[in-house]
């Protein structure tokens, strides 16, 4: 992924130093409740994995947290594995993300 930043009328390309993706999901159903992406540009403070996981959990709605708190987990996945427009589930036993057909 290339991020283009405007600087005094000229284009500068800035490559991220690191990229992470985390999904918050229900361990029983595999349903994903939140996808959290982290992109660190040069000079950014990189947080620990635990901090990024806690941030991902903080974005889950209070209703889901109340209903499913004991069944929520966070899985780190390759940043580029998540494609926009696709639906996913998590196989909790194998700790893998898999694409699924969208329900209409």
Strands, total number = 7
Question: By helix and strand content, what is the structural category?
Answer: alpha+beta
Strand order of the largest sheet: 4-3-5
Q: Percentage of helical residues?
A: 10-25%
Which radius of gyration do the C-alpha atoms yield? 16 Å
Overall tally of structural domains: 1
User: What portion of the residues fall into strands of 2 or more residues?
Assistant: 35-45%
Could you tell me the mean pLDDT?
87
Ranges where pLDDT stays below 50 over 5 or more residues in a row are 1-10
Q: Would you write up a description of this structure?
A:
The chain has 104 residues and is α+β, with helices and mostly antiparallel strands. The chain has one domain. Helices cover 16% and strands 42% of the residues. The protein has 2 helices and 7 strands, in the order E-E-E-E-H-H-E-E-E. The protein has a 3-stranded antiparallel beta sheet with strand order 4-3-5. A two-stranded antiparallel ribbon has the order 1-2. Strands 6-7 form a two-stranded antiparallel ribbon. A hairpin with a 4-residue loop joins strand 6 and strand 7. The N terminus is likely disordered.
């Amino acid at each position: 992924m290339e991020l283009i930043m405007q600087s005094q009328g000229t284009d500068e390309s800035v490559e991220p130093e690191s990229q992470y993706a985390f999904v918050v999901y229900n361990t029983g159903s595999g349903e994903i409740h939140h996808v959290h992406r982290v992109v660190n540009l040069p000079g950014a403070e990189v947080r620990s994995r635990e901090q990024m996981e806690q941030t991902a959990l903080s974005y889950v709605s209070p209703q889901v947290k109340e209903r499913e708190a004991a069944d929520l987990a966070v899985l780190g996945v390759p940043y580029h594995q998540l494609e926009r427009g696709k639906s996913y589930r998590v196989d909790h036993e194998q700790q893998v993300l898999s694409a699924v057909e969208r329900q209409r």
